[in-house]
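Running this now, will post back.
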Amino acid sequence: MAKSAFEKKFRHNLGRVDKRLDAYIEDAGDEKSIRGARTALRRLDATFSLLPKKVRRQNRSKMEKYRKFFKANSRVRDYDIIYSRLVALGAQDAGKALQKKRKAELQRALALARSLKKMAAMRLDGMQDDKLEARIDKSTTKLAGRIKELLPVVLSDDNKVKELHRLRKDCKKLRYVLEMAPAGGNGKYVKMAAKAVRNKDLEELQDRLGAIHDSDVTIAYLQSIKSQLVEKEAVNRKQLYLAFVRFMK
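Update: finished.
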């Protein structure tokens, strides 16, 4: 049976993850490899939710292993972000403690990446079904609705750190879900997404929220070590937040 456009896209996402894992293992610690693996895994996770229930069920344990690696890799990435921010803030000898933590987390992530390469491929029998449109509609409606609810909350209070992070993740997931919508019927989903983000560019919104999140991660670290630089980073965070508010007006 011929593969559907959706199945081809999903298999392409799987292939992309596989290539990014190869790059990660070959050049462990490279920032480009770390970022590439994160992006590929986020896209796979978002599109996994659109698979038929039977296919999701038979691959659930595999997807959980991908998520476990994603979390470990994200911690490595956070250490890189914190280090770059400390350098920008003029911190003296910022690297030693961070690099030790980064090295330990990278070794853990690398072991998980190698185990993923040994894992059997996902079973995609039963991809042909007639409910894809309904799942895309449900996912888009849910994400767009949540974004519409979160925006007024975060635009009125810069202290909503968790909500800002949730909004960022929802924007990413919505963008990846839209990529999977059938070419002939994605118009209504694009309109739904545009309305949810007040007709702003979804990717730019995501990037602005990402910059705020990076600052929040840095502030949390500085608070944990009781550094006086936390006030300086708070100023940077305030500027990023105000730029985000202006962008959304």
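The CA atoms of residues 50 and 132 lie 7 Å apart. More later if anyone needs it.
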